Automatic annotation (TrEMBL):
InterPro entries: Aldose_1/G6P_1-epimerase (IPR008183), Gal_mutarotase_sf_dom (IPR011013), GH-type_carb-bd (IPR014718)
SUPFAM superfamilies given in the database record: Galactose mutarotase-like
Source taxon at top rank: Eukaryota
GO MF, one annotated term: isomerase activity
PANTHER family registered for this protein in UniProt: APOSPORY-ASSOCIATED PROTEIN C-RELATED, GLUCOSE-6-PHOSPHATE 1-EPIMERASE
Pfam family, one: Aldose_epim
BP GO terms, sorted: carbohydrate metabolic process
Name recorded for this polypeptide: Glucose-6-phosphate 1-epimerase
Organism: Lactuca sativa
């Protein structure tokens, strides 16, 4: 298990050895985000009560997408386009941005992680952008 410098953000191994990030706020609430798909699989309130549903039958094994929780749907939702269901970003491995740009508001009471997706050459044919970036709060 490896931990980042900030103890409120921990990078560790999850199911089937997939990398995940655990976010801990000072009030005791937590979130768990798998880097595979940038998928939020757990969100617990300050009482430790789970607020998301992830099926016990969910498969945490690429190339299958994780089912349940909060999936990332990009650049399309469902099969409402020419790409695979919910777009390509859901089945790619994201990385943690270790040098994010300054956040526009006071973050002293918040924990967040910035994720980056570096698309493959095939992805760039579909979505011609160099990087996709988003934050999880």
């Amino acid at each position: 298990m490896s931990t980042t410098e900030n103890k409120s953000v921990e990078i560790t191994k999850g199911i089937n050895g997939l990398d995940k990030v655990i976010l801990r706020e000072i009030n005791g609430s937590t979130a768990e985000v798998y880097l595979y798909g940038g998928h939020v699989t757990s969100w617990k309130n300050e009482h430790g009560e789970e607020l998301l549903f992830v099926s016990s039958k969910a498969i945490f094994k690429p190339p299958k997408a994780i089912r349940g929780g909060i999936p990332l749907c990009f650049p399309q939702f469902s099969n409402l386009g020419t790409l695979e269901a919910h777009g390509f970003a859901r089945n790619r491995v994201w990385t943690v941005d270790t040098d994010p740009p300054p956040f526009p508001s006071n973050t002293t009471n918040r924990v967040f992680v910035d994720l980056l997706l570096k698309p493959t050459e095939e992805d760039l044919k579909i979505w011609p952008h160099r990087h996709i970036f988003y934050s999880i709060f």
